[in-house]
Queue: 2 jobs
Job 1
Amino acid sequence: MNRSSRRKFLSQAGLTGAGIAAASVFGLPSYSQASGRTARVKLGLVAPRAEFNRRLFGAFLEHLGRSIYTGVYDPGNPLSDERGFRKDAIREVADLHVPIIRYPGGNFVSGYNWLDGVGPKKNRPTVLERAWNSLETNQFGTNDFMDWAKAVGTEPLLGFNLGTGNSEMAIAYIEYCNFAKGTKWSDLRRSHGYEQPHKVKYWCLGNEMDGPWQMGRLTAREYGRKARDIAQQARIIDADVNLIACGSSNTIMPTYLNWDREVLEECYDQVDGISLHNYFGNEPQLSGGKSERFLAQNLDMERQIREITAVADLVQGLYRSPKKLWLSFDEWNVWYRARSHEHLDGKGQFAPHLLEEVYNLEDALLTGGFLNTLMRQSDRVRVACLAQIVNVIAPLVTSPTGILRQSIYFPYALVLKYARGRMLDLEVEGETYPIHAAGLRADFARNEEVPFLDVVATYDAKEKRVAVFALNRDLSNERELSLSFDDIAPSKVLACETVTGTDLKAFNTFENPNKVVTTKLDAMKAGAKMTIKLPARSYTVVHLAV
Ligand code: AHR
């Protein structure tokens, strides 16, 4: 792109200071309003960008309900292998190519004694697990997770217990996992049959330590100091680890943002990232039960990312630190139905049915929106985890005889399959609709304009591929996306797939598993200017050779 057209694109794309204020739609700098059902998108390689981190598309596996037991580990079931791993779950997760999976919790980790879950299975104690009031047999533990992670081709993201756990046992854990040999804990691992260290590179320093529900909850300053101490020691064991501090559990916490600031004031120099969590829903408080507001909730996620980024950068400034923190959005999903007491209390049972949210079409569309947001914010978000992966608020559900793909599986699979390389710079001009604050919880109460179309695009320079991901929030109308490429020209449409349907509330069951699936759209003509017709209520990807 020559210098003057580059400047023109930058200013039209709202990527210059002046453009941002003029074009702001729900805080999205590169969107501007226009009327009509056609949105115009300019795509270019304006900013020098690094490739985004694929860990953005991670997931989460917690000892909770039927996630581990009967989900991924079910010895004796004919569908399981000799290690007790469900082969159908392995196949599904492996086929998705999930880059990283967080384990073992969640709230669970804050009361977990990792030593109970290693060594000969017959010696492992059964304990009462207190986060979910369930029976934990410890028949699946860290080494089993490592084996499973290998089988599905994913990287582990482990968590330390900063709740009931002390720094001694946290450091013992990383020594057990990552140190080669010749020390108490590394040799214990070797005696358990794991000669080679697991070399886990990403670690969470606890979980949701601001929450009154959390075992061993601390104040921000107490937590920040504990996290700093453990991080400092962990780096002696393994200098290459990436350590993630616990940020706020969600945006309605009374300590939201102050928690993050105080924690980082205590431990900024010792950590690499800070975590964000949030769960969304089409419920009275968050959307007024209105699907058009619900489908805009990825923009609430986007605002949360911007707010936490601002806090991290504030603390960087306070310390005059050369280090910029990245963000780990390591719990996100729709979750609002299976959330009342009976869905959270395991009543002392083994593998109880907890948090078994049934996902419908509108949840799938918003999941596409969340993935768009994560990609759009990928210069700061390095890690993110769809919470979770099997049975518990999950895209995959097992029964004793099979496995089901829920609706949210499909946008997740599309993004995992097609998003590669770096983000393209976009200038989007399109119609918007208003959303209203009245009656909503403070952190969702906004009077804003929301674009009907939410679009991002990735560019894989090596393979010469572009992928365009578009959420059509229009509940009644097809909308057109008119693409014009500035410095790369598509030569062929390789695939065009969509998740759509007439009934926003439709969901899959074992008896009827194909109500919400991906379908193919008629291919359009490829070219530097091309138009895609997006069905009403849809999440679509167009994969192009360039
Ligand atoms: O993912 C379910 C639970 O939600 C996690 O255990 C906890 O971290 C969050 O509150």
Job 2
Amino acid sequence: MVVIGRRKSIGLFIAFGAGLISVILLLYVGGVFLNWRTGALLVLGVLLLAAVIAGVVLNTFFLVREIRRNEQHDAFINAVTHELKTPVASIRLYLETLQSRLVDDAQRAEFYRIMLEDSDRLLETIEQVLRTGRISPASRKPNRSQLDLGAVVEDCVAQARKLKQLPSEALTYQAGPPLVILADMDEVRAAVSNLIDNAVKYSGKDVRVGVETAVVDQKYASVRVHDHGPGIPKAELKHIFKRFHRVPGATARVPGTGLGLFIVRSVAKRHGGRAWAESDGMGQGSTFVLQLPIMR
Ligand code: ADP
């Protein structure tokens, strides 16, 4: 998909350049032909100048867009390669240790625990990449059924507590009224889990995450995920939902691929809903909101 998109814009680039050269040649030949008429020459000159300026502007626009895309792809390849290589290297190291020397039972149990964690991380990365492909506009429509959003959120909270071994006060859930939506269970689960996982992941050691569900304007079922983590700079709030985008600086050192929030917003849009982030800036924590239409 990405390669096709890139080829398309490069094709557009080349076609535009060729078109521009033809126009310039045409105007030039025409200009020479009509040389004796000063008025016609002036008009031709102005047209030529306008065409050249428009060409330069458009070329620069496409060039910048291509460079940005290349940068994003490089960042994505680096992040995914890192996210795939690190857990595999770690699992391999523990297996080699188990194979090469005798370890006591407690140590062996610890090695197994770490290897299981690494394989979960590996599966999570693979699942994020596959899901990004599944929710692209060209892919199948969501497989909708009647869902209780509150129950889905409660399940995601319970799963996150278990996987990250969090006490219930570190990750709280405040249930609102019953929220019936018509949605793809798998996609909604992925979106809610991504928000909870991010809130826990970026909080570091001090995990204080609150999840709430509510009805908004009698129209939307809303899920709010609030954390006391590092927060997000205001200028980044609208960019973090873009594919592969990661906020530079301290949070970029936390493992990730830049796909989670892209999946959240895509799922929201596919269901006629919306998703956004709020934060008063660095060090101020963040709140993420996912709203999906209530079933009538
Ligand atoms: P990933 O977490 O894999 O990098 P996401 O798409 O889930 O990708 O998030 C994009 C970026 O948004 C992250 O790299 C991070 O900089 C920022 N971000 C997301 N959630 C939070 C959060 N709860 N607190 C602070 N920053 C966040």
